[in-house]
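Exercise 3.2. Students should predict the tertiary structure of the chain below and write it as structure tokens, then compare their answer with the key that follows.

Predict this chain's 3D structure.
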Amino acid sequence: MNDTERHIASAFDRDLEGIQAQIMKMGGLVEQAIMGAAVSLETRDDELATKVRENDRAIDKMEELLNEEAARVIALRAPTASDLRIVLSVMRMSANLERIGDLSKNMAKRTTVLVQMQPIGSTASSLRRMAREVELMLKDALDAYIQRDAALAQDVIERDADVDQMYNTLFREFLTFMLEDPRNITACMHLHFIAKNIERMGDHVTSICEQVVFLTTGQLPEETRAKLDNTSTDMGPRPDLVKDEG
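Answer key:
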């Protein structure tokens, strides 16, 4: 390798390091958004909910910058297959992170409405625990990415079943509260949307882990884990059929 080739290779390595550092920074902001939204709901902190909504702009901006930088790297560096996987994985991961940020913002929007209503049992605490599990999954997913640990990524994928089960349990609690007292219906509808948003976050974390497996092995996981969300067969609101605008 001559000096020119070494210089090009070194510049490309710096580009890869730069976009990977950015995806980790974006992931940190998204972790904060998840817990900020959950804590604001549990503590009925409208100020914190507003902060979560405002901070989502930074997450959106990071996705834009990452996509621009990734496109530049592809255009200028013509990466080989293994390096191209890194760039493509970053682009896909940033899209998933941006969506988790949007879902956190949607949670915060509903918190602003819910603080005007009477609390519904201990459901806010249950939602915070569910959100905490997703946050821990995301942290491990990002660690798996940095460490190129396909086994850890697969473990996170399997843990999404726990989030699905939490959602199913909460869904039935909301139905019970609504049946016991029709005055609970509006609040429970909002809480149900929040629970569904958190469940969707788990799905996006799973997608990130699938990218880690793809990055380390060159292939996506062979089998898609069966979803344990069985609420579609129950009577009740179906937020998965209604677009929740970000």
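Discussion points: The radius of gyration is 20 Å. Confidence is low (pLDDT under 50) at residues 232-243.
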